[in-house]
Write a structure and sequence with these properties.
By secondary structure, the protein is of the alpha+beta class. It is 62% helix and 6% strand. It has a 6-stranded antiparallel sheet, with helices on one face. Strands 7-8-9 form a 3-stranded antiparallel sheet. A hairpin with a 4-residue loop joins strand 3 and strand 4 (76-83). It is elongated and about 125 Å long.
Length: 853
């Protein structure tokens, strides 16, 4: 059933019975309404529904949904109220509502015709009221008509009290006004919270029951022993307040703040809101809403009588005590006390004001925190509904999510300082939902800096950092050179540790199954068996939570990367594929699932490269997945950037195998340039373009040409990418590769290396080249110094200063790269170059040769 006038996803308020859905699907031709905007519901099994037909959705009401229907037996239109959820306590309250309402025979209390069950679904058949709620109707009524309506309502409530029934939830939304020739006729309904003379066991002392703005102080305290006729008198006064002023009592505050004001503050005069309002009506409202029960009207009938007196021009009985008179009389009797206490009173007022300000600030922040958290949770729910739908263009729904995010941002800016922390947190979650990981990280870190460090906020930041880590890891793992790949993966250790720390802080404070969070922690700690056990526990606890299957795939992908035997890697990749295909069946419109499938094929290509298999069929399989990803997100740069990356990797593989990388490098360049034309800020496309240009330069060099132009352009793309994402490991790797190729080419052709060293310095400031650097940069810089040393040897210059720095850098990186292939090769090369120089100078090179060996 789609709610009238909304774009919410269709919901089915009624459970299936005996495995059969009692409602048929609405026809697509557009005849699903009766011309008034009401949804038409047709009963599938007419034999099981003998009493009513032609149901049309009307509204939400109390504990249920209300439909207009026709009773063919008695030939009358009725209102059918169905219970939304079958919970024992709600079912008892639902039936009590009907019993309470049926106890009172009064023209202005909605009549109950029948209480029953249909195929396990409880319902109440009631008088159908063709009107509007008092909330809607009041602004169009004259002042005398509004007073007359409330007079009639008070008389009807008195009749209910006479039967021993207390309504406990009087408010304009529970009063329907019908237009009749004699004037507006009000009818009271929704006795769902009413209390009768029987003991039901449903009211718990201390439990707050009612609607905040219309709730009497004794209800707000949860003091149900004090709830009685004068509680409804308070509700009449609060309703009259709304009818006269257009605002509920204590308007402008919500939730707990309303309850606090109900208990602690006197009601402001209505004449402040409406200076022209007759003072007698202000007096009646304030008399109804006295905090002291004894000072309220003694009955609803007394309220009705005073309203009648005002309407007929007679003096009302209620009298409003004058605050000035009471204060002045007390002050005259206690002049000495007043004089001595004045100074102390000033201090007390200042301190009280400060304390009140602190309490108000804390309450405001709590209120905004709840508001923003609810907004983010609504976005997460909508995103889940979108992903569970059949494959379709997600553009319109994503635009709606972005609108919600913009609304949260506007709320944050409007609310001011108290909402900055909660607002930044909610925006961070919103950007996380939209996949804007950089912006999500910025907002969530801002929330933390502002002191908003709830476990939920810590967990959201941990999830954001973990997703960014996974993205960086995927790119680093696709480097074809095994030694360089290992170095780049290790460089991400700090980022992984930070994500792990935040996930631990927020452990157990998210909507995901607890076992899922524990599985994430185990994955990051590289405890794969434990992580898989947690995945199975999460699947049992929440089979609907398909993200657990994605986590399972991530675990198997991690195992595949670490496995040394090709057969073990292949089995792990097959397990990952099976989990992702299962996740895809659950959520066919989740782009993240398709992205992971595409990256799984990247891992398959890496395995094929290491084992000498043909990469082209695997690239085609990945391309098919990327096309399906594009169907969900037309125009999104992600699929095309990943395709350019794959094509560049194929070109690189051809270079290593001594084959011509064309047309792979040309295709990669064309795709990446196309992405950057529409999305210049896409770093992944810049990485792919730099990698493809490196292959282009290498192809030119191997064919006897100059790689200079292609490698210089690759370096410029890296520079642009680093400006967008400083320190991005995979971009730095491409910088080093392009520089190494330039040095090799210029050295072989006898060119001056000074401009190239200046180029190195433009990427890496002197403090990095000459001082302490981290292990990743140390390892990469060592290769540049060795290459420069070799070039200086050819030019008959002393290479030893360069080689000495190279060895220092290698030692700096030895904690991570010791006993690795590339580490040892670089050490050997440095010693060989040093030995050759000694030989050129007529010195003994034996020590250097031995070290190289």
């Amino acid at each position: 059933v789609r709610e009238p006038g909304t774009s919410d996803p269709p919901t089915r308020p009624f459970p299936s019975v005996h495995g059969q859905d009692p409602w048929e699907t609405l026809p697509p031709e557009g005849n699903d309404t009766d011309g008034t905007g009401h949804q038409v519901l047709r009963v599938l099994t007419l034999s099981a529904w003998k009493h009513y037909r032609d149901l049309r959705f009307v509204a939400e009401g109390g504990m249920g949904r209300v439909f207009r229907a026709y009773d063919p037996r008695l030939k009358r239109t009725v209102a059918l109220k169905f219970l939304r959820r079958e919970e024992p306590e709600l079912l008892v309250r639902f039936k009590l509502e009907a019993q309470h309402q049926a106890q009172v025979e009064h023209a202005n209390i909605c009549k109950v015709y029948e209480v029953g069950d249909w195929q396990g679904q409880s319902y109440i058949a009631m008088q159908f009221l063709d009107g509007e709620t008092l909330e809607v109707a009041a602004p169009r009524l004259s002042l005398p008509d509004r007073v007359k309506v409330m007079e009639v309502v008070a008389e009807a409530i008195h009749a209910a009290h006479h039967q021993g029934l207390i309504h406990r939830d009087l408010k304009p939304a529970n009063i329907v006004v019908e237009a009749e020739a004699r004037g507006p006729k009000p009818t009271i309904l929704d006795f769902g919270l009413a209390r009768g003379g029987e003991a039901t066991g449903l009211t718990v002392q201390g439990l707050v029951i009612g609607t905040a703005h219309y709730m009497a102080p004794e209800q707000a305290r949860g003091d149900h022993d004090q709830v009685g006729r004068r509680t409804d008198v308070y509700g009449l006064g609060a309703t009259l307040h709304r009818v006269l002023t257009g605002h509920a009592p204590f308007a402008g505050t919500e939730g707990v703040d309303v309850i606090r004001r109900t208990l602690e503050e006197d009601l402001p005069s209505l004449t402040r809101l409406l200076p022209d309002l007759p003072e007698d009506l202000d007096t009646i409202v304030r008399k109804c809403m006295e905090k002291d029960l004894a000072r309220r009207y003694e009955s609803a009938l007394a309220v009705a009588e005073d309203l009648r007196r005002w309407r007929e021009g007679e003096p009302i009985l209620a009298r409003k005590p004058t605050l000035r008179y009471r204060a002045g009389k007390w002050a005259r009797r206690h002049r000495l006390v007043v004089g001595v206490g004045a100074v102390g009173l000033v201090g007390i007022l200042v301190l009280a004001g400060m304390g009140l300000q602190v309490r108000q600030a804390a309450a405001a922040q709590a209120r905004w925190a709840q508001h923003f958290a609810q907004g983010a949770e609504r976005m997460e729910a909508l995103a889940r509904y979108i992903h569970l739908a059949p494959p379709h263009d997600l553009g319109p729904e994503l635009a709606l999510l972005r609108t919600h995010a913009k609304a949260l941002e506007m709320d944050r800016d409007r609310a001011g300082r108290q909402a900055r922390g909660p607002g930044a947190y909610a925006l961070g979650r919103a950007h996380l939902i939209l996949g804007n990981l950089g912006e999500a990280q910025r907002c969530l870190e801002q929330a933390e800096a502002l002191g908003f460090r709830t476990p939920e906020a810590q967990y959201a930041l941990g999830r954001t950092l973990s997703l960014r880590y996974q993205q960086e890891l995927q790119q680093a793992l696709q480097v074809m050179d095994p030694a360089l790949r290992a170095v780049q993966v290790k460089a991400l250790d700090t980022q992984q540790a930070k994500a792990l720390d935040y996930l631990r802080r927020g452990h157990g404070n998210a909507l995901e199954p607890l076992a899922y969070q524990e599985g994430l922690l185990a994955l990051f700690a590289e405890r794969y068996n434990e992580a898989l056990a947690k995945v199975e526990a999460a699947r049992r606890a929440a089979p609907w939570f398909y993200e657990t299957l994605v986590l399972k795939a991530d675990i198997h992908l991690a195992r595949a990367r670490e496995a040394t035997e090709p057969a073990a890697r292949s089995r792990a990749l097959a397990e990952a594929d099976a989990a992702l295909q299962a996740a895809r069946r659950h959520a066919p419109s989740d782009p993240h699932v398709l992205e992971n499938l595409a990256r799984r094929w990247s891992e398959e290509m890496r395995l094929a490269w290491d084992t000498g298999r043909d990469l082209e069929p695997l690239a085609q399989a990945q391309k098919d997945i990327l096309r399906q990803w594009e169907l969900l997100l037309p125009g999104d740069p992600g699929p095309r950037a990943l395709e350019a990356w794959t094509q560049a990797n194929l070109a690189e593989a051809c270079i290593y195998q001594g084959q011509d990388p064309a047309p792979w490098d040309r295709t990669a360049v064309a795709i990446a340039e196309g992405v950057l034309k529409t999305h210049p800020g896409n770093v992944d496309a810049r990485v792919a373009l730099a990698k493809a240009l490196f292959a282009t330069g290498a192809r030119a060099y191997f064919l006897g040409g100059s790689p200079f132009r292609a490698q210089m352009r690759a370096l410029e793309e890296c520079r642009s990418g680093l400006a967008l994402s400083p320190g991005k490991t995979v971009l730095l790797g491409e910088v080093f590769r392009a520089l190494m190729h330039l040095i090799e080419y210029q050295s072989a052709t006898g060119q001056d290396l000074a401009p190239t060293w200046a180029l190195v310095a433009s990427f890496f400031p002197p403090q990095l080249l000459e001082g302490e650097v981290d292990t990743f940069l140390a390892f990469q810089l060592s290769a540049l110094y060795i290459e420069f040393g070799d070039a200086e040897l050819r030019l008959e210059r002393d290479p030893r200063p360069r080689l000495q720095r190279a060895m220092e850098l290698l030692e700096r990186s030895s904690g991570r790269t010791a006993e690795r292939f590339l580490f040892n090769i670089r050490h050997a090369n440095a010693h060989l170059i040093w030995g050759k120089y000694l030989q050129q100078q007529g010195q003994d090179p034996t020590a250097q040769a031995d070290a190289a060996i």
